[in-house]
């Protein structure tokens, strides 16, 4: 891939913050961009100074939300080099999202190569603080500047990167989750499988409603019966029965196929747990939590890796899970996954992609 490197001008070089990284508050000095037009295909690949885009108010993405994104992280290894975790999974999902949103697809190998080049140049933005990472946000937006409702003929693909602090600031602690049977995230045949902006805009109202009730995330049920568990916030969800059997809802068209979910399934089996992808009935699930058959509940996604759920709210009832403490299975998976991601433990699956940094 031919990537033009646009030099930073003096005054455009910022240093990453030394601490208190927060979540994606500061962006590295450079970004990757390339453009697409029907006929020419992808062209004008660049790594250039991070900065504002100039777009007409009529640009299609602002009106009809034809946009997709990805989220993955770069991890600082003990030897100073940098790991990506299963990045080709994200490259493939980016294209699956693009196809669903009637957008142009990108070359998956070249997309990864562009990300690696960007991280090589911005390697000092990958934090060395414990549990801190560099979040990578590939994005594609529709660029046509006309208001007709149809798939755009032009696109902008960009990648920006931003340091993030530890997800659990006060240690590995459970989150309270409100089960909504009023609002839904996605419906089979819709775009729930795609990482597209509208899914998140559509989830905000229910998220705020849950927060007003004292919960920090929403448990989403299926759109047709309001009965089958789908996801928690922007994470996939797992239930642990009797400390040894992990169950997660199947990918049936309205669940986002998470890379962490897939890794929990594969790693869980490797570690000797029984793992099943099965529909979970919310009423049976709550009965099983109350009877103690379900010993743990946790969300899984790139941001938190594993996020234990300590309490469910449903209508006016509050149901405590495992005494509102993180359980041993969540802990075990969190430890094993993060050890592989940060390169602290051997990677028997070949999941990590190491970027070598000069001088390390
Ligand atoms: C991104 C995302 C996930 C988790 O996917 P990972 O690849 O594990 O980060 C789960 N659900 C939704 C809705 C998401 O957007």
β-strand percent reads 25-35%
* CATH third-tier fold name of the largest domain: D-amino Acid Aminotransferase, Chain A, domain 2
Instruction: Give the CATH class of the largest domain.
Output: Alpha Beta
Number of helices: 8
Mean pLDDT: 96
Please state the second-level CATH architecture of the largest domain: Alpha-Beta Barrel
The number of distinct β-strands equals 18
- Note the gap between the termini: 26 Å
Fraction in helix: 10-25%
Count structural domains. Answer: 2
Assembly of the depicted chains: single chain
The gross shape turns out to be globular
Whole-number radius of gyration? 21 Å
CATH superfamily of the largest domain: D-amino Acid Aminotransferase, subunit A, domain 2
Largest sheet: 9 strands, mixed
Series of H and E elements: EEEHEEEHHEEEHHEEEEHEHEEEHE
Uncertain runs: none
| Class derived from helix and strand content | alpha+beta
Ligands and ions found: pyridoxal-5'-phosphate
Tell me about this structure.
With 360 residues, the chain is an alpha+beta fold. It has 2 domains: 4-164, Aminotransferase class 4, branched-chain amino acid transferase, N-terminal domain (D-amino Acid Aminotransferase, Chain A, domain 1, 2-Layer Sandwich), CATH 3.30.470; 175-341, D-amino Acid Aminotransferase, subunit A, domain 2 (D-amino Acid Aminotransferase, Chain A, domain 2), CATH 3.20.10. Helices cover 23% and strands 29% of the residues. The protein has helices spanning 60-64, 87-100, 108-121, 197-201, 204-212, 259-270, 282-291, 328-341, and strands at residues 4-5, 30-37, 41-49, 67-69, 72-76, 82-85, 133-142, 154-164, 175-179, 217-221, 229-232, 236-241, 245-248, 274-277, 294-301, 305-314, 317-320, 352-355. Strands 1, 2, 3, 4, 5, 6, 7, 8 and 18 form a 9-stranded mixed β-sheet that branches. Strands 9, 10, 11, 12, 13, 14, 15, 16 and 17 form a 9-stranded mixed β-sheet that branches. A hairpin with a 2-residue loop joins strand 16 (305-314) and strand 17 (317-320). Helix 2 crosses helix 3. The two termini are 26 Å apart. The model has no long low-confidence stretch (mean pLDDT 96). It binds pyridoxal-5'-phosphate. Pyridoxal-5'-phosphate binds at residues 71, 195, 231, 234-236, 256, 258-261, 301-302.
